[in-house]
Amino acid sequence: MAKASSNDGGESYSGHCLCGAVHYRVTGPLEDPHICHCGMCRRQSGHFVAAAAAKRADFAMTGEDHLSWFDSSDFARRGFCRHCGSILFWDDGSEWVGINMGSLDQPTKLRLERHIFVEDKADYYDIDDDLPRFRGLDQPVT
Fold first, then answer.
1. Over the stretch 83-108, which tens digit does the pLDDT of each residue have?
2. Architecture of domain 13-140
3. What is the pLDDT confidence band of residue 9, given thresholds at 50, 70 and 90?
4. Taking the complete model, does pTM exceed 0.90, yes or no?
5. Domains in the chain: boundaries
6. CB of 32 closer than 8 Å to CB of 110
């Protein structure tokens, strides 16, 4: 996944699930804020997902014992609070952890950078902004 820094001002971020059982903090930049239109994200969330990535080394969590993981593919898993069902994380075992932006405490000062998996977009909505669009993660739509 391409990474483009969205916040290089040394800010930190925090967030949590709906019920507050799982909290996390990121002490570095959140990168690559995007909207994912893939079928797995849509089925898990009920719509598309807005997410960003944090370096695993900058990421800390409390309440991890309240987190459940679902192996959604042969290369990634999705983390959610087993009490309230909040969808929080996407993890492929790399140096990056995907964080659902809706779980972040405000303000984030982040701006979405792109749409991914636009070929999987549902038929009930349109993508009507000027953000770059990609088939899969990194194949530009021309």
1. 999 999 999 999 999 999 999 999 99
2. Beta Complex (2.170)
3. low
4. no
5. 13-140
6. no
